[in-house]
Specification:
Length: 68
C-alpha cells in the first residue's frame, strides 16, 4: 500500500485512491500520530474517520464534525 499512486496538486500530493490513516492501513494501534497521518502520502487525515484529507493533524472532517 505504501507504493499507492499519488496525485500532485502543487505541493499537496494526495493518494489517487483516497487516503487511509496508518492505523487503518495496518489494522494496529500504532500511537504517535498514526491515526492522523496517511499511510501512503504522509499528509494529515481526519482523526474521526481516518480517510478524509484534513488541513492539519488533529482535525475532524466536515462529516465527522457534524456527528459531535
Amino acid at each position: 500500500m505504501a507504493d499507492q499512486m499519488l496525485m500532485a496538486t502543487g505541493d499537496d500530493r494526495r493518494c489517487l485512491d483516497g487516503c487511509r490513516s496508518e492505523e487503518l492501513a495496518t489494522g494496529r494501534e500504532l500511537g504517535d500520530g498514526a491515526a492522523m497521518r496517511c499511510f501512503s502520502c504522509g499528509k494529515a487525515v481526519c482523526i474521526g474517520c481516518g480517510t478524509t484529507p484534513a488541513p492539519l493533524n488533529g482535525w475532524l472532517c466536515d462529516s465527522c464534525g457534524e456527528l459531535d
